[in-house]
């Protein structure tokens, strides 16, 4: 229920802001607005102060909205109101009215990002878990427990990394741009600084998808290989393991972090069953060697071993927040970065250099909306800002039926001195609808594939 409510709230806010941009600019340009609608279909709520004022309605289908303006191309306009018709306005005014919707979404994103920054969020510290064997991260010299303090692209300035989320963002951005990324590292205590170069330029933007971090070798943030609650009667308790034990090695091989410890335990299976493991643990400063016989279970059709104990300390979190002016600067910078990344990814998908699996539809949006609401207000504001940027950028694409398509019509009119003919306008609109249907179908397919674990 929370997911549905969060999704509907997200859609409602973005639609209202988008259409409000069109509405306010139309009023400012002297155009009479007949109806302001949130949604399509059957009218559920209606308000109109006077018969001559704008009618505000909420309709049954919430996936969109529109502002209906007085226009001689859509019906008879009384001579007394002809100067308030949209089609009678100068080209500049019509372009401003069309562009105001996407602009409102981008301005909203700035405000939302700034507000999220002012409130602050608890985010994982940029401490690295053990990189996957043979991965880019491991070959670059990154190790479990490294603390990423800053990143730098070739020819750019160092950028401070405040959290693990920051790191993921800059790694993704560098991969999309095909650039290597220099990382300034220290140990977990901020000592022994060094620099490594992550060669992201060899990947290419086609590799940017939900598994990008695993491909690079950056998994979860660092978690110490310390045991938590030990289940009564389980293999760990029978072996003498206790809560708080820090695992140093398994069968003589050092353990880097909790993720590698879990993986080693799960993989201790042969044809005969679960293999016994020899663990060296640090218990309050004393090293103890214990022999554990894991239990063998089946999980999703695979045989895995378990010791029936919680493995790993909680990930370390840091508070990330911004001051008043710093928050506004952050909102503007993040809106610009997300807009640029969205456009670049769309362009690369169009020419086949990026996977179309990156397209997301309503199911993914609903899922993330529900998750962000449960995490807290600042997380939801950040999510809402992200979707607002996406909506603003998408609507500026030069596709018929979108605001960007109408702006292309006006560009043609400005260059040639005449509007596009009705015949070509009809053809372009039909083509635009077809393209949008293909994109929506592909996005919905990706949503379902993600839910089924196919992506």
From TrEMBL:
<dbReference type="InterPro" id="IPR008915">
    <property type="entry name" value="Peptidase_M50"/>
</dbReference>
<keyword id="KW-0482">Metalloprotease</keyword>
<dbReference type="GO" id="GO:0006508">
    <property type="term" value="P:proteolysis"/>
</dbReference>
<dbReference type="InterPro" id="IPR036034">
    <property type="entry name" value="PDZ_sf"/>
</dbReference>
<dbReference type="InterPro" id="IPR041489">
    <property type="entry name" value="PDZ_6"/>
</dbReference>
<keyword id="KW-1133">Transmembrane helix</keyword>
<keyword id="KW-0645">Protease</keyword>
<keyword id="KW-0378">Hydrolase</keyword>
<dbReference type="GO" id="GO:0004222">
    <property type="term" value="F:metalloendopeptidase activity"/>
</dbReference>
<keyword id="KW-0812">Transmembrane</keyword>
<dbReference type="Pfam" id="PF17820">
    <property type="entry name" value="PDZ_6"/>
</dbReference>
<dbReference type="Pfam" id="PF02163">
    <property type="entry name" value="Peptidase_M50"/>
</dbReference>
<dbReference type="GO" id="GO:0046872">
    <property type="term" value="F:metal ion binding"/>
</dbReference>
<protein>
    <recommendedName>
        <fullName>Zinc metalloprotease</fullName>
        <ecNumber>3.4.24.-</ecNumber>
    </recommendedName>
</protein>
<keyword id="KW-0862">Zinc</keyword>
<dbReference type="InterPro" id="IPR004387">
    <property type="entry name" value="Pept_M50_Zn"/>
</dbReference>
<dbReference type="InterPro" id="IPR001478">
    <property type="entry name" value="PDZ"/>
</dbReference>
<keyword id="KW-0479">Metal-binding</keyword>
<dbReference type="GO" id="GO:0016020">
    <property type="term" value="C:membrane"/>
</dbReference>
<keyword id="KW-0472">Membrane</keyword>
<comment type="similarity">
    <text>Belongs to the peptidase M50B family.</text>
</comment>
<feature type="transmembrane region" description="Helical">
    <location>
        <begin position="95"/>
        <end position="119"/>
    </location>
</feature>
<feature type="domain" description="PDZ">
    <location>
        <begin position="226"/>
        <end position="285"/>
    </location>
</feature>
